[in-house]
Amino acid sequence: MQTLINGLKTNRAFAVTSFFVLLLIAVALAAPLIAPYDPLEATMQNAYLAPNADHWFGTDKLGRDNFSRVLYGAAYSLSSVLLLVTVIFIIGTTLGVLAGYFGGKVDVVIMRVADMMISFPGMILAIAIAGILGGSLINAIIALTVVTWTKYARLARSMVLKVKKRDFVEAAIVNGGTSTHILWKHILPNILPLMVITAASDIGAMMMELAGLSFLGFGSQPPAPEWGLMLNEGRQQLQTAPWLMIFPGLAIFITVVIFNLWGDALRDVLDPRQEE
Question: Which of 12, 94, 225, 236 registers the highest number of CB atoms within 10 A of its CB?
């Protein structure tokens, strides 16, 4: 934590991108207070209104306010992608640490399963899994978790194998340290910075993939105000009502750029390349 605080003081890029990340989260949390209309309330006589003083982002085919739906979509999309990244981070890191530390059959089983998952094109496999499970946000998260955890597992395993060779770990083993003690006190503190950086850098990519599944009909379902689903709903009116795709698309673009820049700045702050 102290490293992050120092980074905010000394690294301007990290401070600026952190501000925008917090701003996005604040907008998502404050959506019910900011949004001028109910994002699910249909008013058919207002269908397909162009952006105007009353409806800044126009309205959709049911007359729902697009600005309100984009605001609520921030909460919906951000919460879902943060949940997805957290689940992938926990599962992948845990399996990678177990494989790297214990080795033997544990390592063989976990890594062979990871190799099997990597052999399939990731997005295609995610679509297949989501299609089998049925279209919903939870099923989309499960599908992306299944195809993405391998990246974290392999990275965590390689780092654990490196840390295991260091003198302080060998000294802990000689002194009778238990596996649990060594993992919590010596292994995890040395691999977590890079794992956290990887997770932060993946937020943008995971948002794109989650929105992609929703766009294809395998993620969020109507009438949820989710950005990928809004793109899908607006694609048929691209020529007559382009605002239905422009504003959700801009929301995804801005969010992905902010999180990508924040991930790069976080890497500079934590700097895991420094040797202990």
Answer: 225
Q: Which residues of the chain have pLDDT under 50?
A: 272, 274-276
| Predicted local confidence at residue 274, as pLDDT | 46
The CA distance from 167 to 173, in Å, is 10
pLDDT of residue 1: 65
Q: Cβ-count burial of 42 within 10 angstroms (0-12 exposed, 13-18 middle, 19+ buried)?
A: middle
Q: List, in order, residues 6 or more apart from 84 with CB less than 8 Å away.
A: 141, 144, 145, 206, 210
Helices (H), 103-187: 104-118, 122-133, 137-163, 167-174, 179-182
Please state the pTM of the whole predicted model.
0.87
Q: Who contacts 134 (Cβ-Cβ below 8 Å, separation ≥6)?
A: none
226 CB-near residues (< 8 Å, 6+ apart): 73, 76, 77, 80, 137, 211, 214, 219, 220
Q: Supply 55's token pair.
A: 């409806």
pLDDT at residue number 169: 80
- Binning the chain into helix, strand and coil, the percentages to the nearest 5 are 75, 0, 25
Cα separation of 150 and 113, whole Å?
9
Residue with tokens 């049925």: 134
Q: So what's the pLDDT on residue 273?
A: 54
